[in-house]
Amino acid sequence: MSILSIAMPRASRWAVAVATACSPLAVHAAAPPDATTLDTIQVRSARPAAAEAERSLTPGGVSIVDGDAFHERAVVQMADALRYVPGVWAVSGTGGDAIFISSRGSNLDATQYDSNGIKLFQDGLPVTTADGSNHNRFPDPLAAREVVVARGANALTYGASNLGGAIDFLSPTARNSPPMQVFVHGGSHGRLGGRLTAGGAAGDFDGLVTLEALGRDGYRAHSRQDRVGLYANAGWRVSDRFDLRLFATHIDNDEQLAGPLTRAQFDADPMQAQPAAITGNFQLNVRTDRLAAKGTWVLDGDSRLEFGLSYEDQDLYHPIVDRVMVDFDGAGPNPPVEVFSLLKNTGQRTLGGMLRYNVRTGDHDVLAGVNLADTRERGGNFRNLAGRRNGRTEAVDNRSDSVEVFLVDRWRFAPDWTLVYGAQGVLAGRDVRTTRLADGALRHPRDDYAAFNPRLGAIYALRPGSEAFASISRLYEAPTTFELEDDVRADGRTLDAMRGTVVEAGLRGSTAALAGRPGWRWDVSVYHARIRDEILSVDDPAAPGTSLSTNVGRTVHAGLEALVGASFPLGDGYRLEPLLGATYNAFAFEDDPFYGDNDLPGAPKYAVRGELMLRSAGGFFAGPTFDLVGARYADFANAYRVGPHRLLGLRAGLERGRWSVFGEVRNLFDEAYVGVLNVRDRAAAGDALLQAGEPRSVYAGVRLRF
């Protein structure tokens, strides 16, 4: 089916979307179909069935991560939290919140500036801006009770059709978590953090508030971070069928950036900062305030309506390019002149909305919904003088909006068979205004994007607790405002949206761990996506740190994702529990006139992360952790290769009633390796591209629940 690209007034787009979303409401309710229930890797405590039920009705890769597991190891940001999720490559350049993240090969361009390709949600409401950017912040995983990762087209039930899929962070409440708890953690590189949670329920009302603070010097020079946050929610049970909940978040995060190194600098001292990062005082400082409201209305035993609104206000202060000085007259009398530097200082406001209706009738389980988002970014680009604003060079006024409408039916048309079919519609607008103050020149790319993205899949129950699945889906992703602003053509034309088709198949299931017999859990997917017009950006040599975006004719994103766990009884209350998350990536150009069939850079060929824990019935656990990461390229020409690395760690802990404690050693043999890398069109040996991964580090934490 062809992708449509049409222009439509924004008010009309919103009206059409709401009307389309409401059309399934005429479906009548009846008896629900059965669904295969599967164990979730990393979930050991009792959990609400909603996320697991949706997963069992999805013909593709979905992972559910238990938030309690984050208190058994050193988790402070998303790369830590998503460690075992296959298909997702997430790593921090210094151990802080500024991370690189890619899902199924999303975001593999030169600067990774906007971290697009994955839609982020909190409690089903959007965090990602309307243009698809995640540049300013990622959610705090320790503030989540559960994290759902729907990779690629499997995010249809969230309304997403982008390459990477969606991640939803579900908040704890006073009704489903300990109302009082304290968590203190710290260790190497000056890390010290604490969280205090207090709340309770009285009749139909409940509330929960968490205060957190984190400080760290960072394992590289110039990588200090200071973060404070407040996370609160309050609920009102209006009736047995109707709940309302309010959410409030405040985050003040200041983070220094160490910058990439050349290979020679890395070999000499991988923990040093890029000299320009110090003289330019590179930082990523974000202040965030968010308010949200969500309602859940159980209409009857077979139908349910969810709706919500969110408003997020962010202020960004981001010195990122040091002064580029040029001596135009060589040894002449005139001093060098600054030709470029960059400090971004903007305010960003996003209004989002969500409506989801689920009805079960006969053998059908129908889900319909709409996501709405509108983002306004205003501020400017400044010259950077050691991290201080040194005169505004450009005024920025960007607007974006998006409407995502989706409808999916899970039809149990025969015993053991479920047919999953549906579609998503996208209506998106981009309006980018950048005014150069020196002469008043205006760059004003703007466009509207629209697409219809069908999906067809099937799930077959092999036996209780085990199933096979397969699907074919359309992928679609409109450009971000950053990509439109930095179009390599710079002639007013706009980039095309990325589009493609993905096929996927896999197996998932579990066997119960009985006395004297092991239990197994597995989730394995293979996928192959052919993409047209993927948007990639290469670094602009005339202005280092900025990017130029372009559409690439054809690319392939394929891979294998596996998450496997087991529990082997050893006697006397002990069991051995291995856990393995493995990813194999095959991301490449296809018959490109410049790059042929070269590999896409940025993501490793493979990544295997696992652990082998010995656990006792008394709450003790201990065992090794390991990372096996393959080679990567740092350029589109495949001329600059970054080798593989192997890491070993140790983890141990004890949980007794109301308290628990853990200790973790990372990179036990202190191997020097590359964590994050920057990408060029054709990299040279002297290019600054490499950021070191974490050296040997020791962390510990204690948690008290009341």
Automatic annotation (TrEMBL):
Signal peptide positions on this chain: 1-29
Keywords recorded for this protein, A-Z: Cell outer membrane, Ion transport, Iron, Iron transport, Membrane, Receptor, Signal, TonB box, Transmembrane, Transmembrane beta strand, Transport
Lineage of source species: Bacteria, Pseudomonadati, Pseudomonadota, Gammaproteobacteria, Lysobacterales
Name this polypeptide is given: Iron complex outermembrane receptor protein
Cell compartments where the protein resides: Cell outer membrane
Family: Belongs to the TonB-dependent receptor family.
GO CC annotations, alphabetized: cell outer membrane
GO biological process terms on file: iron ion transport
Record membrane topology: Multi-pass membrane protein
Pfam families reported for this sequence: Plug, TonB_dep_Rec_b-barrel
Keyword tRNA-binding: no
Source species: Vulcaniibacterium tengchongense
Record-linked InterPro entries: Beta-barrel_TonB, Beta-barrel_TonB_sf, Plug_dom, Plug_dom_sf, TonB-dep_rcpt-like, TonB_rcpt_CS
Record's keyword annotation contains Ion transport: yes
Motif TonB C-terminal box positions after renumbering to this chain: 689-706
TonB-dependent receptor plug domain residues: 58-166
TonB-dependent receptor-like beta-barrel domain: residues covered: 279-668
